[in-house]
Amino acid sequence: MEINYILIVAFAFLLLVYLLFLHKVFYGLLKLKRNDSKNFPDEFVSIIIPFRNEEAIILNNLKSLGEQDYPPDKFEIIYVDDSSEDKSSDILEKNKSLTNVKMISVPDEFSPSAHKKRAIRFGIENSKGEIIVTTDADCIYNKSWLSSLLSNLDENSAFVSGPVEFISENNFFSNLQKLEFAGLVLTGAGLIGSGRPTICNAANIAYYRKVFNEVGGFKYQMNLSSGDDELLMQKISKDTNYEVKFSLNEKSIVKTSANNSLHEFYHQRKRWASKGLFYNDKSLIFKLILIYLFYTGLFVQLILALFLSKYFFVTFAVSVLLKSFFELQILIKGKRLLFKNLRIRYFILTEIFQIIYIVVAGLAGVFGNLVWKNRKIKR
Fold first, then answer.
1. What is the spatial distance between Cα 181 and Cα 247, in angstroms, rounded to a whole number?
2. Number of other residues whose CB lies within 10 A of the CB of residue 128
3. What kind and span of H or E run contains 5?
């Protein structure tokens, strides 16, 4: 029986760690302030869009950016071709009629192991903006997206993370992903609100070039295939006196399509999970490991309940119910604050799906090789 008590205490500890994490996220959301200001910085803006094999959708992105209500003489759009194997570049070149749009290609020898990050860095080096905005070629935007996002930058704030939302394709899998992804975005927003910026999405961020240079840009990350968003945000938060903000405004939302298949979803989350162990904050890495152990512990409790003691059915049920209750509160708050079209009715199925993929993709992201846009990436 002693081993049972030890295990129960261990699972209770992991549950407490996770609930405290959710508490920080929820109250961080409460601290965020909506910004409806129509003022934006005076500095020139460079929008950097890395792309690879996007021939089917890149014109939708170009059209959406061309409809921005931001003064066209105040920003440039730079598409950076990262070794596309399709006709993306040709299609873009033939259709870019706007004077503030240009396309460049990354040389093969330019930081070959950094992949998407090398494309962003090459774009920055060939841009003239004092403010850098990064987004993706598979995104579409509200016409006030740029002005809404940049209204958060000022003399005290150097980095702003914007919301990203999956487009609902009116099928079960896309709706499941939309709700689950909203939870991730809200988690990032809540952590920013709580003063511990941890996660963001490179499809919708902006920062000052001078601060990017001040922290060394991607200098310490170029051996990694990802991290152009979170690692940079964390470094600015930790190593400078500037604030990191989240743009709590539906006009700031960037929309992109959900994954078409479970295979695509798995490799996407595997890539995202691969960044965690490279965070510079060791205490943050430790907390993430504890959270991962909490999720793994849910499976362990079920196994123990079957082969050791039925008491573990109780610990499992308590853990799942408390986890689900507090995560539901975060989603409800996020629906009120930002994502008006969330379909909460998918919540229970999303919970089950989330537990499985976090355990599987988390482990694979640490030990396995990665795949992005038909490109195999070694860790």
1. 17
2. 10
3. helix 2-31
- Phi, psi (deg, nearest 5) at residue 268: -65, -50
**pLDDT, tens only, 134-180:** 999 999 999 999 999 999 999 999 999 999 999 977 889 999 999 99
Number of independent structural domains in the chain: 2
- Same domain, yes or no, for 254 and 222? yes
Residues 98 and 66 in one domain: yes
Whether residues 217 and 345 share a domain: the answer is no
Examine the fold and report which residue of 275, 292, 321 is the final residue of a domain before the chain moves on: 275
Q: What pTM does this model have?
A: 0.92
Closest CA to 15 of 297, 226, 254: 297
The last residue of a domain, from among 260, 275, 290: 275
- 356: tokens are 């499985």
- Nearest 5 degrees, angle CA 215-CA 243-CA 17? 95
**Per-residue pLDDT tens over the stretch 6-37:** 999 999 999 999 999 999 999 999 999 988 88
Look up tokens 């995104």; give the residue.
139
